[in-house]
Amino acid sequence: LTDVCNFKGQVHECHNGKMALDYIENKGEFASNGTTYPKPELILLDINMPVMNGFEFLDAYKVLPKDLRGGIVISMLTSSLNKLDKDKAEKYHDVSDFITKPITKEHLLDIVEKHFGKQMKS
Question: Which domain holds residue 72?
Fold first, then answer.
């Protein structure tokens, strides 16, 4: 995101859904140093991840306190063309977009403009 879209904000990468939940809740490895991590504005959520997949993440995310999840845009990513995945994702009110990978620069620019009202230079 930073290289592709000249984004100047902070990007944090989590390799599975459990790690992402720990980040949001400041638990696990994210609680050890006493730092409160910034609440994400955007989550690019892959369906297929180790430990906890995207749907398992969404099930756990939807029961988090509202102050932890409110205002976060979730764009779900998949390499699958399975319509059932899209239908299932659409049942989660927290999912704002469903994007087939690979994600492109144009996808990222569209997400930013759609949800944050910002046009980024391409």
Answer: 2-116
